[in-house]
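Tokens in:
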């Protein structure tokens, strides 16, 4: 019986995953056996923490922004719905790299000017120092740009989740005397979030990959450190192999977790 379970588990493993894992093992063994690869691994690994910090902080902030925009997009109050729709459609129509440049070199100076205007009395009293574009480091600007960009995409995911909840449940909640906000919090959002969990997890995988774009601002992430190392040693092949290895380990492992989450939710919904 146990052998049959093991055989069934093995037969259920996709071939592409076995191939990728095999290539990963070969790459890791080669790296451990080659001195130059070990040096490159050590150098590139210094950017791992920055990459994960940028991705996690951006994702958490974009979840909050996306939820707010998704609720506004589903609102019955037309001005709120129109404003949120304008933002979502505008941002989704721009490449992430353009958003990154715009926030870094236009948005940061503008934000400094706004803060100086709002806090002018406190700045005059010496409580705060005057803000400038240098008050925001490039990692902060990158996080803000990814948050604003992915917030628009996540807003559409939340909107789809909210609209997937049966309208009869909303009407039943109103009939029981629940207000609109109580209905959203107690009835709609728990089901909506459950329905869109796999899509939200996929966005985290996407934001990890797009975090590589922050290297254009000089943020010392995996890509930037790899680029600098390759340019100084001319070991482009070896360096970018290591960079690709790091990203593949992150994204494939997360993708497998997303698939497992989807299967679990599917089983629970069928019961």
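Residues out:
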């Amino acid at each position: 019986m146990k052998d049959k379970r093991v055989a069934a588990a093995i037969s259920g493993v996709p071939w592409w995953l076995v191939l990728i894992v095999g290539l990963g093992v070969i790459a890791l063994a080669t790296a451990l056996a080659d001195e130059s690869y070990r040096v490159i691994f050590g150098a590139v690994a210094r950017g791992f923490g920055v990459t994960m910090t940028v991705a996690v902080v951006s994702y958490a902030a974009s979840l909050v922004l996306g939820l707010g925009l998704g609720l506004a997009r589903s609102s019955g109050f037309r001005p709120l719905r129109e404003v949120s729709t304008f933002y979502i459609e505008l941002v989704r129509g721009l490449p992430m790299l353009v958003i990154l440049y715009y926030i870094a070199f236009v948005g940061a100076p503008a934000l400094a000017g706004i803060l100086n205007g709002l806090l002018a009395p406190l700045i005059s009293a010496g409580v705060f120092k005057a803000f400038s574009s240098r008050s925001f480091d490039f990692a902060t600007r990158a996080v803000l740009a990814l948050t604003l960009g992915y917030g628009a995409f996540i807003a559409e995911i939340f909107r789809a989740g909210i609209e997937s909840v049966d309208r009869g449940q909303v009407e039943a909640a109103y009939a029981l005397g629940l207000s609109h906000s109580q209905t959203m919090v107690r009835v709609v959002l728990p089901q909506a979030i459950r329905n869109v969990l796999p899509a939200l997890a996929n966005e985290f995988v996407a934001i990890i990959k797009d975090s590589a774009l922050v290297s254009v601002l000089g943020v010392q992430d995996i890509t930037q450190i790899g680029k600098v190392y390759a340019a100084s040693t001319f070991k482009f092949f070896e360096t970018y192999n290591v960079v690709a290895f790091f990203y593949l380990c992150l994204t494939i492992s997360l993708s497998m977790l997303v698939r497992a989450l989807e299967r679990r939710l599917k089983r629970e919904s069928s019961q």
